[in-house]
Amino acid sequence: MIYTFCGTCKAKGINPYEWLADTLNKILSQPVNRIHGLLQGYIPKNDV
Fold first, then answer.
1. Is 13 left (phi over 0), alpha (psi -120 to 50) or beta?
2. Closest CA to 14 of 33, 39, 41
């Protein structure tokens, strides 16, 4: 699981440590209907 997480981050140009630290800091205040916004490389449909 960790290997896949790191591989996905590398493929998307994301620093895994920074993403994980940022996500853990945000997760408590994130509304459940917007939890997908915490996914690696998530781009909202209206931003594409």
1. left
2. 41
pLDDT in tens, 16-35: 898 888 888 888 888 888 87
pTM over 0.70: no
DSSP symbols for 2-26: HHHHHHHHHHHT--HHHHHHHHHHH
Rounded distance between C-alpha atoms, residue 22 and residue 16, angstroms: 10
Q: Give the separation between CA 23 and CA 25, rounded to whole angstroms.
A: 5
Q: How is the chain split into domains, by residue range?
A: 2-47
